[in-house]
Amino acid sequence: MSLWCLTTLVVVVFVRGDDAARPPRGGARSSSSVAALNDLWVAAVENRETATELSSAVYGAARQAEIAAKTAALIALDGTPAPAPLEARADFDDGSFVTVRANGTYVVEARPPQPPPRDAAASIMDLEYGRELCDMPGMDSTRRAPSAEERYVDVVKRRALGYDGRGRWDIWYERVATGGAARWHLADPTVLSFAHLGSLNLLEVAIKDLVRSVPGDVAECGVFRGGTALVAAAALEAYDHGSRLVWALDTFDGVPDTDEHTKAWPERSYAAPEDDVRRNFGTVGLERRLRTVRGQFGHLVDSNASLPARLALLRVDADTYQGTLDALRLLYDAVSPRGVVIVDDHHLGGCRRAVRDFRAERNITAPLLPAPIDYVLGCPLDHRRTRWLAEDLLFFSSSKQQQQQQQQRAAQSSSPRRRILTEPMYVAQNVYWRKKN
Ligand SMILES: C[S@@+](CC[C@H](N)C(=O)[O-])C[C@H]1O[C@@H](n2cnc3c(N)ncnc32)[C@H](O)[C@@H]1O
């Protein structure tokens, strides 16, 4: 999981006096308004040569603005006068720029030089699945009670994320995330780290939506020990009244050494046997939803392996250029019209390139939408959570020495502080698009 450096971009945060409109919350949006918002996103970032790079850049700027806004909120809570609304701006080599405002939530404003400037303003959180992510129980400011289905999926998420019940963190904002990449290579029964919660939420929201009207199963290319696939199965169990399957495709022998990007990684990264996936599904009784397919995605094209005929959702989590491209080539045609493709690892250069090449190869113009996955920085939070989040943001913006002092104080305290953020990630790790009719 290497972070992408914005080498050609400059992101600055500055204070501005005017007020950004806050997108309305609550109530269903018509599909035409979603389409209009998605189109604005396209106008802002997508119809450009460097489209995929831009979506990460804009997301980065949005996060910067959000950090500034939440930090300002904390200062205000402590009695210091609130500064004016903040905005961040991403500048590009060709002289164009995108501004992102933050007033509790954020707004993307783009003035691309070609085509001629137009008024384009859309909140990232208001794109296709943005708001639903904010409105999940435990994340929304209304504190609605979760449904039985949501509670069930939550239990499986805890299982997938390796929640051990010992207060290391809690999924509903209470505690923090520790762990991460280093744990993935251990032979413990857990499959994912806390940082994946946002990915799982996106998956749940998409499945809940898709089972209403889009036919087909769910497939994940790149499953490791099956953590994400397990949550997909749980979401089907909760929201689909049929018998849709989860197809888990992998070498089950780790990432093959097929491109230069992969060589930076330890050999056979993420090697996990098929049995691990089965066992994980078995622990929650969902084996009947599982179909596994073994092999390199590129080799499966001409094999006689049994592959899904129709998919409502395709999730690609292969990490590499070749794996991502091969997976899309293998299964994109099986995706139903209006089905959704989610690509993990868009923060990795090889993966981004593969998405761009595949979309160009297939002339795909559907907007590539970013999803906030590590934490929902764009979501309005209640007072208590805003405070925690703001405290975390301040913590991460302080010096290493100050951080150490704070940690020492926290260790001595009888009530350890809550941390709800990991180191902020200024890129969109998950992107998705909806296949056109
Ligand atoms: C980051 S892990 C996936 C994590 C997983 N989605 C989860 O929920 O834990 C990447 C996976 O992709 C698989 N993979 C990468 N390239 C592949 C390829 N070309 N063919 C088949 N599997 C591949 C690896 O074996 C590995 O299990």
What's the short version?
It holds the Pfam family TylF. The protein has 437 residues and is of the alpha/beta class.
Low-confidence segments, ≥5 residues, pLDDT <50?
1-29, 45-52, 112-121, 166-191, 422-426
Task: Assign a percent range to the helix content.
Answer: 25-40%
Number of strands: 12
Global geometry: globular
**Total count of helical runs of at least 4 residues:** 13
- Head-to-tail CA distance between termini: 34 Å
Give the overall average pLDDT: 70
Series of secondary-structure elements, N-terminal to C-terminal: EHHEEEEHHHHEHEHEHEHEHEHHE
Beta strand %: 5-15%
Structure commentary:
The protein folds into 2 domains: 10-127, no CATH class; 148-374 and 429-434, Vaccinia Virus protein VP39 (Rossmann fold). The chain has 13 helices and 12 strands. The chain has helices spanning 31-46, 51-77, 130-134, 148-161, 181-184, 197-213, 227-239, 274-283, 297-300, 321-331, 349-361, 383-397, 400-412; strands at residues 10-15, 86-91, 97-102, 106-110, 121-122, 217-221, 246-250, 290-294, 311-316, 335-343, 369-371, 430-434. The strands form 2 sheets. It has a 7-stranded mixed sheet, sandwiched between helices. It has a 5-stranded antiparallel sheet with strand order 1-2-3-4-5, covered by helices on one side. The chain is globular, with a radius of gyration of 21 Å. Mean pLDDT is 70; it is low at 1-29, 45-52, 112-121, 166-191 and 422-426. It binds S-adenosylmethionine. Residues 1-20 form the signal peptide. Keywords: Signal.
